[in-house]
Amino acid sequence: MEDRKSNARIAWDEFIGKFNLCKENEPEYIPLLQTVPGTTESVVGSLPLPEKTVRESDDDRKNTSSEAAAVSSRTTVIGENVEISGNCKIDGDIEVYGIINGDVSAGGKISVFGKITGNLCGASIFLSAADVKGSVMTEGTIELDGASNLSEGKIVARNIISNGSTNCDMEISGIARFHSSAHVTGNIRTVRISIDEGAVIKGSIISE
Predict the structure, then answer these.
(1) What share of the chain is helix, strand, coil (3-state, %, to 5)?
(2) Which of 185, 107, 113, 97 is nearest to 139 (CA)?
(3) 20 to 30 A Cα–Cα from 15, which one of 30, 105, 181, 182?
């Protein structure tokens, strides 16, 4: 009988020991309301944030900074239903789906999917189903697809790759490539030229 009691006592002590161990591992909590020594006033205390929470907050701040940097470098977009009368000057890239009556200057790439009546100046220029009336200047490449028209100005670029229609003179310091659907009306001055079968050129070609 005494042996059974002894075994029960041992089991009970082990259970209590486990319970106390759990208590010892529990985190200490700082009271939210604390009394200022020597007074009857109370102040609101604060619980220290767990280390993991602090690290997550730092990561959140880093992510926020990255997102802000991404926002500042986004391409400026002129929507399809937007019409602007006046000149536009952009530091980065610009995509035009609407209508601009004025000059467009960009530090990056100019992509036109709409209509511009004015001069273009950018790092590179891409026209897709675009109608541009004005001069185009770039130190890079100007590219036209088969549905684009460029007229009433002059093209000054390093390279041109044309599948569309141009009605203007052009000066190309690199290579001028005219694919089978290209239609050119105007004089071409270039270092090198490539003309695919089917392309139409009405004007003089000077290769320097």
Answers:
(1) 20, 45, 35
(2) 107
(3) 30
The closest alpha carbon to 185, from 153, 161, 147, belongs to 153
Characterize the bridge pairing of strands 99-101 and 76-78.
Answer: unpaired
Find all residues with CB under 8 Å of 50, minimum gap 6, and list them.
Answer: none
Provide the whole-model pTM. Answer: 0.65
Distances (CA, A) of 114 to 23, 84, 97, 155: 71, 12, 4, 19
pLDDT tens digits, one per residue of 116-167 = 999 999 999 999 999 999 999 999 999 999 999 999 999 999 999 999 999 9
| Cα 180 to Cα 58: distance, rounded to the nearest angstrom | 57
Helix (H) or strand (E) holding 193: strand 188-195
